[in-house]
């Protein structure tokens, strides 16, 4: 029996996870319908009071915003600093215009009162008054004690009507937005009040037959602000039969007994001004239809059951898709996994474990081979085959960054074993002895003072260095070190060794020169005998090895530039090479050696590349003879350029362009045949057996576009053809062109063409 896939397990688990709770909730709802109905009604009430809260606060916020505009207006700021009389008609008229703009049907704002206690004036709808003579002077002065900021206060409406028309107030109470003036001053001597009659907000509250089932609003002092019974406005909430101690949380629900009846009370405390919105609903009225609600609950539960199962199935497939992608990437199929009676995560875990094991083995193998790679690098460096710009990078890579940064003085030490007639070793033991001496050098010279010793041509060579510029101290330390080496080798292995030392140098680019100086010093064993320690400054009058003036690193860069057909760089390197050659004082005959060597190496490159001599030199004369007949450095440079370097560059350039053209044509052919697949530059590189970065560079040079740009352009070309010549739906075109969804295709098409695909199709058909 095959094991279930992880997708099947996730789907079954999702079905169970969604089915069992729905069935349980449905049964529980039917049995305890009264409580569930109460919760549902309470939830509805909470939504209702939240909606009413939103509507009320929207109006309050609008009033607050418009009042802020008034109190921050230039007119009011100017008026606050001067008394107003009947003669200040212009100022009064400007203030009335500012106030009039606030009063609109939407805000329910009835009156705006401006008070200046310092200059004893008050402005409201009915006119301008001396503030101290106003009937409710003391009450309005008491509002000066409200805290700074936005304060909503319940006030009797009669405070804001003149005595002769006090009975004209439509509501007994008004909700006032109080702001102390001036807003930016330290001393507050004025007020701005925006008054909204409570009855004008009453229409925002819904009501039903039971007075306690309607919405009421309390202020932060638990006074009733809005209530269907206007006689309760301004009184404590306890007057309506509710208790005060229940409103401890920002929102909630609780059960209250009023007139021996149970009510469910839902409340919400506003974050804007601390008002409490609440509704009380009779529990008895909610439980009348419990059986009907039970039936509805059954239908709803069945629907939710189907919906939950559908969502569980869709969600499981979506959650499984990354696992499927991962399995495809590691080359596993579900059928194979099921046959092995395992699951996807075990397979992925095995592959990851195998990957880590492979990584560990690769690291181990790399550590084993790093010694050989490092040895090969130093051998090339001592032979002058490492470019100058490559030297520092490799030294850092092999762990010699500290030496590279700190060493100021260096010298090469070359060591060879002397075989005596009475020695117990024969020349067949040479390799073993060299290996033993190599290990002793690594142990006797601290890592910080040397580079890795290398065995080359039966000679052990290493570089020692010092952080000091003092040549005398370095020379003394160098001689002491070599004596100690010689003594320890003789003591442990019972063999004599001769040691040669190069002149001090200060750059790692001089390794090849130092190596040759050490070898040259060892040649004097023929005169001085075995077991000697000799420094090169005793051999060549303290001058560096003269035969090493050949700039091999520049020659290597020149050969690379010629092969890459880099004309300007080749010319610069040729000039640098000849300058380095002529910088050393030699006889005319001695100059012929490096020049002939350069010509010979150029001809070797030409021959290895399959270029015949007749292609660059149609005449049958000897190139070397022509070179040796030249007399000045300018003539020599021009001859090398015109007779050898530049002709080779042209040949390599023609080959390169032909190769680039063929590669670009192959890439274009792949695009035109597989534009409707997930074609990538890496896939093209794999098919054409080239490096992806190289292909990208070649394709851009040939076409002027990157691979992704050309692929996108060709796909848009095909999209426009399909839009103009077929009735293919846009979503199918988007799918063929490998877009994740049609909207991405439409956005890209509009960005490139300025119109949508549908508009383009209509335009082409009209044409």
Total strand segments: 16
Give helix % range: 40-55%
Can you count the helices?
27
Low-confidence stretches: none
Tell me what portion of residues adopts beta-strand conformation: 5-15%
CATH topology of the domain at 368-548: Alpha-Beta Plaits
Q: Distance between the terminal alpha carbons, to the nearest Å?
A: 64 Å
Mean pLDDT, to the nearest integer, reads 79
**Name of the CATH architecture of the domain at 368-548:** 2-Layer Sandwich
CATH superfamily of the domain at 368-548: Reverse transcriptase/Diguanylate cyclase domain
Determine and state the CATH class of the domain at 368-548: Alpha Beta
Gyration radius from CA atoms, angstroms: 49 Å
Helix/strand/pairing category: alpha+beta
**What is the spatial order of strands in the main beta sheet?**
3-2-1-6-5-4
Reported for the largest beta sheet, the result is:
6 strands, antiparallel
**Approximate shape:** elongated
Give a verbal description of the structure.
This protein has 767 residues and is an alpha+beta fold. Among the domains are: 181 residues, Alpha-Beta Plaits (2-Layer Sandwich); 109 residues, Arc Repressor Mutant, subunit A. Helix content is 55%, strand content 13%. It is built from 27 helices and 16 strands. The strands form three sheets. It has a six-stranded antiparallel sheet with strand order 3-2-1-6-5-4, with helices on one face. A hairpin with a 6-residue loop joins strand 10 and strand 11. Helix 1 packs across helix 2, helix 18 runs parallel beside helix 21 and helix 21 crosses helix 23. The longest helix has 42 residues. The radius of gyration is 49 Å and the shape is elongated. 25% of the residues are buried. The mean pLDDT is 79.
């Amino acid at each position: 029996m095959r094991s279930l896939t992880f997708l099947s397990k996730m789907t079954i688990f999702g079905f169970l996870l969604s089915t069992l709770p729905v069935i349980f909730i449905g049964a529980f709802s039917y049995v305890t319908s009264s409580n569930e109905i109460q919760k549902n009604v309470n939830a509805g009430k909470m939504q209702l009071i939240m909606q009413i809260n939103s509507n009320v606060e929207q109006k309050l916020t609008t009033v607050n915003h418009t009042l802020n505009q008034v109190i921050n207006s230039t007119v009011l700021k100017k008026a606050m600093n001067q008394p107003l009389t009947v003669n200040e008609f212009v100022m009064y008229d400007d203030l009335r215009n500012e106030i009039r703009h606030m009063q609109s049907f939407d805000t329910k704002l009835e009156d705006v009162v401006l008070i200046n206690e310092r200059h004893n004036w008050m402005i409201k709808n009915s006119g301008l008054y001396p503030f101290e003579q106003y009937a409710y002077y003391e009450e309005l002065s008491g509002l000066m004690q409200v805290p700074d900021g936005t304060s909503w206060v319940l006030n009797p409406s009669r405070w804001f009507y003149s005595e002769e028309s006090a009975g004209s107030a439509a509501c007994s109470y008004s909700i006032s937005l109080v702001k102390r003036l001036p807003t930016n001053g330290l001393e507050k001597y004025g007020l701005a009040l925006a008054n909204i009659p409570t009855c004008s907000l009453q229409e925002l509250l819904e009501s039903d037959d039971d007075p306690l089932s309607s919405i009421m609003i309390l202020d932060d002092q638990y006074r009733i602000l809005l209530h269907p019974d206007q006689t309760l406005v301004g009184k404590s909430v306890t007057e309506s039969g509710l208790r005060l101690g229940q409103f401890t949380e920002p929102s909630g629900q609780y059960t209250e007994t009023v007139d021996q009846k149970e009510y469910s009370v839902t409340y919400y405390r506003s974050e804007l001004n601390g008002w409490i919105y609440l509704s009380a609903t009779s529990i008895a009225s909610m439980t009348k239809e419990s059986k009907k609600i039970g039936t509805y609950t059954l239908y709803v539960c069945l629907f939710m059951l189907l919906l939950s199962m559908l969502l569980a199935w869709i969600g499981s497939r979506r959650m499984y898709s990354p696992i499927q992608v991962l399995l495809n990437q590691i080359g596993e199929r579900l059928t194979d996994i099921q046959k092995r009676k395992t699951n996807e995560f075990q397979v992925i875990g095995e592959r990851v474990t195998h990957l880590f094991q492979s990584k560990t083995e690769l690291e181990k193998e790399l550590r084993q081979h790093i010694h050989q790679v490092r040895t090969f690098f130093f051998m090339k460096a001592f032979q002058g085959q490492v470019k100058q710009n490559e030297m520092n990078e490799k030294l850092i890579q092999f762990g010699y960054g500290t030496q590279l940064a700190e060493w100021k003085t260096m010298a090469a030490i070359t060591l060879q074993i002397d075989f005596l007639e009475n020695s117990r070793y024969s020349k067949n033991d040479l390799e073993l002895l060299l290996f033993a001496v190599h290990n002793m050098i690594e142990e006797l010279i601290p890592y910080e003072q040397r580079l890795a010793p290398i065995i080359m041509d039966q000679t052990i060579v290493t570089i020692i260095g010092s952080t000091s510029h003092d040549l005398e101290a370095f020379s003394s330390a160098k001689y002491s070190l070599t004596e100690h080496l010689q003594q320890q080798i003789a003591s442990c292995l019972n063999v004599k060794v001769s040691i040669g030392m190069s002149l001090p140098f200060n750059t790692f680019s001089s390794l090849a020169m130092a190596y040759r100086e050490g070898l040259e010093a060892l040649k004097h064993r023929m005169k001085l005998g075995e077991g000697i320690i000799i420094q090169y400054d005793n051999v060549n009058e303290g001058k560096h090895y003269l035969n090493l003036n050949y700039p091999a690193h520049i020659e290597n860069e020149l050969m690379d530039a010629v092969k890459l057909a880099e004309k300007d760089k080749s010319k610069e390197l040729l000039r640098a090479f000849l300058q380095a050659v002529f910088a050393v004082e030699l006889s005319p005959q001695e100059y012929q050696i490096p020049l002939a060597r350069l010509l010979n190496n150029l001809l070797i490159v030409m021959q290895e590349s399959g270029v015949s001599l007749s292609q660059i030199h149609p005449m049958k004369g000897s190139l070397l003879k022509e070179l040796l007949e030249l007399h000045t450095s300018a003539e020599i440079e021009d001859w090398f350029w015109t007779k050898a370097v530049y002709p080779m560059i042209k040949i390599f350039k023609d080959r390169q362009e032909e190769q680039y053209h063929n590669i670009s044509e192959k890439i274009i052919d792949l695009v035109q045949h597989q534009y409707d697949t997930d074609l990538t530059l890496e896939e093209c590189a794999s098919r054409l057996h080239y490096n992806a970065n190289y292909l990208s560079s070649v394709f851009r040079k040939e076409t002027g576009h990157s691979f992704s740009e050309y692929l996108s352009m060709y796909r848009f070309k095909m999209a426009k053809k399909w839009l103009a010549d077929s009735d293919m739906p846009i979503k199918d075109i988007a799918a063929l062109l490998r877009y994740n969804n049609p909207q991405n295709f439409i956005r890209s098409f509009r960005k490139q063409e300025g119109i949508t695909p549908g508009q383009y199709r209509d335009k082409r058909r009209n044409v």
